[in-house]
Amino acid sequence: MIALFLAPLLIGAAPAPRDWSKTVTQTSSGAFVVGNPKAKVKLIEYLSYTCPHCGHFSAQSAGVLKGKYVRSGSTSVELRHAIRDKLDMAATIIARCTGPAGFFAATDAMFASQEDWLVRGMQFDRVNAGRMGLYPENARLRALADGAGLTDIGRARGLSDAALDACFANEADTLKVVVMADAAWTAIRAAAPNDGGTPSFVVNGKPYPHADWAALDKVLQAAGAR
């Protein structure tokens, strides 16, 4: 009798929709992708952590892009590094050090505090450039990250000093980032030969080099983002 009473409830209960913003994969080139691998809309963003426009885009887009379009499964977002300077590379190493599970949250944290660590990092580099010039490249980047406060962001995301040391010493991944960045700048300049910069976007294979969030949102919706 109880089973008969419960049967209609069980039949009518729909499973909760999957949250695709928790799904992160990594491409063979080393880029991280969040969202449904079979999403109808595939967005590529070329970004630089020291780019103020990238920070603005991150803040303006997050609620809808990741909170709605990616979450629903209609859209995936692939972030490709377009390195601009030493601070950018230091920030990139730390963000990537958090791995697929932590990368996108670390990226958001980098942009949320960009105004602070960017100023600190430039000041530190200006004062200590001569001394750091004597260091090996990975040690220079680590010292710059420490001076800027970037390593504090990494620690707040759960990275230990040992993990940070290992990531700054990981020459294979650093080389992968350099190769990715070279390819990114080639693509950016091809899309906007006279004034290409970051952030720059590709939606389903078509470049949108100068789109702000308001303009890109219209493109995504037209492509099927929901």
From TrEMBL:
It holds the Pfam family Thioredoxin_4. Residues 30-221 form the Thioredoxin-like fold domain. InterPro entries: Thioredoxin-like_fold (IPR012336), Thioredoxin-like_sf (IPR036249). This is Thioredoxin domain-containing protein. It comes from Sphingomonas alpina.
